Description:
Strand order of the largest sheet: 13-10-12-11-15-16-14
Distance between the termini: 42 Å
Number of helices: 20
Number of strands: 16
Oligomer: single chain
Structural class: alpha+beta
Low-confidence stretches: 1-30
Mean pLDDT: 92
Helix content: 25-40%
Amino acid sequence: MFLLRSIPLRASLTQRNNIQNLCLRLASTHREIPALTKERYPVKRGQFSEVTDSDVAKFESILGGSSRVLQQAEDIQGYNIDYLGSVRGYSRVVLKPKSTEEVADIMKYCNERKLAVCPQGGNTGLVGGSVPVFDEVVISLQLMDKIEQIDEYSGILVCQAGCVLGTLEEKVNDKGLVMPLDLGAKGSCHIGGNVSTNAGGLRLVRYGNLHGSVLGVEAVTAEGRVMDLMSNFKKDNTGYHLKHLFIGSEGTLGIITKLSIFCPTASKSVNVAFLGLESYDAVKNTFMAAKRGLGEILSSCEMIDEASLESSTYHFNLQSPIEKYPFYMLIETSGSNMAHDEEKLSNFLESSMENGLVLDGTVTNEPTKMRNIWKLRELIADSLINDGYCFKYDISLPLDNFYDIVLAVRDRVGPLATKVTGYGHIGDSNLHLNVSCPKFTPEIYRLLEPFVYEYTSNVRGSVSAEHGIGFLKTKYLKYSKRPESLLLMQQMKQLMDPNGILNPYKVLPQV
């Protein structure tokens, strides 16, 4: 989203940069600190060692003192709770390395001692993958935030894994480039976490996922070996592409410490359209018209239902530029010739309105107005947690069935939910289904799961589109992966992490 490159990020994201403010944020939204994960979900602690004082002393020797070894309850509580407030561990120590060598030394020691480890970036994940389940040692990569190189000629960025995505966007923009990844949490999420979860985001329709953009990674294995898989070339056909083992593995096969990523040239011409539509069918047909009419300049295509927009405008005191409609679409174009792009966009909108697909809309290329329109979409996720608790489902669905699940869930949960909403990246078939309620209850949980995943499986969708599996979806992975695939994944985990210490209880079902 090139329009945001010089615009300050919203306050809620800035607050989340300091993860220790998490409990204060929960209190400010009148949300309870969640129950321990082991009390809320059926999960059994693995046969790992417990951290002792001698272990802490060893960590202090590796990190050069106690300043980067956090032990006080008030200092580490935020590292134990996820952003949604859905899971909570009870780790007693948080380590903050600054280099790959320190990470390697920590992992070598933890593997010898059979101490379970939870790697953590910005802790903005939505599936419980970035916080401990029990008492795992948390390795926070917050201090590994060096940008080593930005090559404006090749478009290659090399940086440590703890760099904040929003910071990287600003730095590459200064070189006339653009990050191929854009997320609502870019003010606090880390690029290493993004790559570890193969995050999707708002630009995927234009630039594809991170498996295509990431050229190389450096990662530390469970045994403390440093895997230098860095590359500065898009074409590097030298045997097995081992970097792909770490992209999307959510810290279960290794800890990404450095990476190189290709950043395209920034577009000179950006336009944003915000449209009102009467039905989902109109949304679907408008998307098809946009693909045909806008072609190569289409960079984002988002769908928002009425309840999602109402939540965003209400909780953040925003104003929609058009009247109320059952559905909205946010379409962005990015190109190199303003006159050409405006003509294509004008022809597309004129045709869509003549055909009765689009009932109302506004178009702008003015930076402030574009920023305000994008705010309507980007703040939805934060707004929906203000009702108390929010069950969030990130799924891929065929476009013909894209919105049906929202209606099905709305009927199923009835008055137990404050609201059931759907929005997301229709450009890549990714729906964000949200069920807001006053608080987490077993009753509504049992109504939603496994129903949502069974429904998704029945239409041959994916139980996770871009947020990963983490802890919350492990037992539902079977709905998207065949037994043969699960077996191979388990064999890879056993080979690369024989003691099972790397982010245990995540991704793979417990056996």
